Structures are given as structure tokens and as C-alpha cells.
Amino acid sequence: MFERLLEKLARALEERSIAYMVIGGQAVLLYAEPRLTRDVDITLGLSVARLATLLEVIDRLGLRLRVQNAEDFVRQTMVLPCEEAASSIRVDFIFSSSPYEAEALSRVNRVKVGGSEVRYASVEDLIVHKLVAGRPRDVEDVRSVLLKNPGYDRAYVQRWLADFEQVTGTPLRVVLADLEDGSV
């Protein structure tokens, strides 16, 4: 079910030359122990100004919008929640324009899924995303990713976590260190 949807999404985004990366639970499945996930989270290399382009892709794929006024919702949240009617799988498209996201989009891991190549966030960028989100499920995901990927580029992750600490005030590098040594 997810494989077919990921293939469709990858082809449609590629056809429109939209940079993207799969993040969230689907990326955790690639880099860590299998776990239940009910959605697909996709970061896009699009600004909100190109919402119409994404709406064309959504229409072509037969996805349903989960909000009434897409433009207002996206401007407030930078996310456009959709759903595939046939499977009821939720697909969240996340708009991005930050320097971090631009770099993360340039570092994707292309993975063969069925007959397509799907762009997943790198293991390092998945760690950054999950630590910044900071929910208990995200912290557990990072723990699992670290166990399966001990040779990740720690300097890259540390650099971006330091930047996010300035914005969030959360000691993200301490959380990472605690996860690495098993304190958390």
C-alpha cells in the first residue's frame, strides 16, 4: 500500500521537477527498526508561492485535501495535509525555504521502491528533523536510527543542531549525546 503510494508521489513530483524528500516514519523504516506508521511526510523544495503547482500534482494523483482553505492553511502552518482516497493514507506536504532544508534536499538518499526511485532524507537529516520535533516518539525514533547507523556524520548533525538551539532554546546536542551514550 505505502510502496505504491510512494512510487506515485515520486513520479509525480519528479515530473514537475519538485525537489522533495520523504521524512518521518517512512524514513525511519528505511534507517531503523520497523515500526507502525500511518502516513507519509514529504518535505518539498517549494515556497508557498508555488502552492498552485503542488495543487496540480495533488489533483493529478487523486488526493483529497484535508483542509477547507488550502492557501490560508499553508500560509499559517507551511503544511498541506492530504489523503489518498483509496487507502485513507494521510500525506503531509511540508513547504520549505530555509538554508537547512535546501542543504538537506541536496543530500537525499535515492532508494529503489518498486519501479521508481524515491528520495529519502539522509540519515543525518532524519536525526536533525526528529530531534528538532522533539516529541517522545521522535526521540525513540532517533535512538533506533542511531543503533542501526553508528557511522553517521556526527559533525554535520552537530552543526545544524547548534543552529536550531539558537532558535528553539532546547539543548538538542545534549539530547543527542544522551541518546548516543544511552542516558535517555
List the helices and strands and how they pair.
Blueprint lengths: L1 H14 L4 E4 H8 L7 E6 L6 H11 L1 E3 L4 H8 L1 E6 L5 E6 L3 H8 L2 E5 L2 E5 L2 H11 L2 H13 L5 H15 L3 H10 L3
Parallel strand pairs: 2-5
Antiparallel strand pairs: 1-2, 3-4, 4-5, 6-7
Would you write up a description of this structure?
The chain has 184 residues and is α+β, with helices and mostly antiparallel strands. Helix content is 53%, strand content 19%. It has helices at 2-15, 24-31, 51-61, 70-77, 99-106, 123-133, 136-148, 154-168, 172-181; strands spanning 20-23, 39-44, 63-65, 79-84, 90-95, 109-113, 116-120. The strands form two sheets. The chain has a five-stranded mixed sheet with strand order 1-2-5-4-3, sandwiched between helices. A two-stranded antiparallel sheet has the order 6-7. Helix 6 (123-133) runs parallel beside helix 8 (154-168). It starts with a helix and ends with a helix. The model has no long low-confidence stretch (mean pLDDT 95).
Defining traits:
single chain; 184 residues; Beta Polymerase, domain 2; 2 domains; two-stranded antiparallel ribbon; globular
Let me know the number of strands.
Answer: 7
- SSE order, one letter for each helix or strand: HEHEHEHEEHEEHHHH
* CA-based gyration radius: 16 Å
Strand content: 15-25%
Helix content: 40-55%
Total number of helical segments? 9
What is the CATH level 1 assignment of the largest domain?
Alpha Beta
* Average pLDDT number: 95
| CATH fold naming of the largest domain | Beta Polymerase, domain 2
Summarize the biggest pleated sheet: 5 strands, mixed
Overall body shape:
globular
Please mark out the parts with pLDDT under 50 across 5 or more consecutive residues, or reply none.
none
- Global structural class: alpha+beta
Ends apart, CA distance between termini: 34 Å
Describe the strand arrangement of the main beta sheet, using strand numbers. Answer: 1-2-5-4-3
Oligomeric form = single chain
CATH architectural grouping of the largest domain: 2-Layer Sandwich
Number of domains in the coordinates?
2
